[in-house]
Every structure is written in structure tokens, then in C-alpha cells.
Glutathione S-transferase GstB
Amino acid sequence: MLRVLGKASSINVRKVLWACAEMNIPFEREDWGSGFKSTHTVEFMALNPNAMVPVIQDGDFVLWESNTIIRYLANRYSGAEIYPLQALARARVDQWMDWQATDLNKSWSYAFMSLVRRSPEHQDSHALATGCREWSKHMGILDRQLDSTGAYVCGEAFSLADIPVGLSVNRWFETPLAHPDYPAVRDYYERLSRRPSYRLYGRNGMP
């Protein structure tokens, strides 16, 4: 059985859990990370030298990096319905997954650490205001994309890209900052929330 190492509250671990639920992949999860077993042990760092979750073990195969993991799972476990085989369609999915992992992630970093984690090193008011503006700007990019598709990030159908992006939308709405009116993002959040697997893993079990 697939083994998933990482605490369930981690946004990157939740990508893996949600992907497994969408593709009906059985798994066993173990708590690793802050507040649980340390990722800086020799045992864990033999699996991931970056000392970060998630890590999966699929038989003898070990893999880290959350977006790479969910791509692997879709390829390994017949996930073509959400990760298309056709090159152009797959490239569109990869594009939005990579955008989430780079541009969008970077935009929220300071604001999230300040407002949610309450990090003492992230309490500069100017930096926080800048971070909130950057996060809003990137969510505006997503809003325009969702307005153009009318449904999901890559088109009319749910795809693998909606897993990292959908988790980012949850983080956006759950962070206590001023949220510009992005109706397409709001509709998307509600659309995703009709999926049982998103309610379970995308919204931390919240209805």
C-alpha cells in the first residue's frame, strides 16, 4: 500500500491526500513534521535530504516534492481523466501547477507567515502590506482565468491542476486579510466544495 509521510495539516501533504481520494488510491499516512516525528532524523533524511514533507513510498520507490508526487500518482494509477495524455492539454495542466508552486506561493509567503503563523520575523507593516498586495494581484490572475473557463482552472473539467490551486484558494479565504471581490474565485471555491474529497482534504474537514 502507498505510504504517505507527513502531517495532515500541511498544505503540500493535503495535495497528495486529495489526489489519492480523487483517484481512489488506498494509502497509509504517518505523522511527520512540526509537532510530530522530526523530519531531521537520519531515517527521514535518507528519504528526503531536504527534510520536508510530503514523502511517499510506493513499494521500493521513494519520491518527494508534492506536485511531482501527484503527477506520478496520476501516471501510475490511471489518472488520465484528470491528467490528460494529450500533449497540449497536459501542458496546460502543468502550467497552472507550476504557477501555483512558484509565483502564487511566493506571493503569499510573507502575509501567511505574519497573519496565520504569527511569526515574530514577519511583523513589518510595510512588508505585510506589500505581501497582501502581491497575493491579491496573483489571485486576480486566477480570477480572470476562472472567469474565462467558467468552471475549473484549465477548462470545463476538473484536472490535476485544481488540486494545488484549490488548496491555495482555501488558504486565501482562511487568511484574515482584506479580500478583493473576485467572483470567479468565490464561485470556484464553492464548486470545489461540492466535491467530497475537497471538503475532506482541501478545507481541512470543514464543510
Observations:
- Residues 2-77 form a domain with the Glutaredoxin fold (CATH 3.40.30.10).
- The beta strands are 2-5, 27-30, 55-58, 61-64.
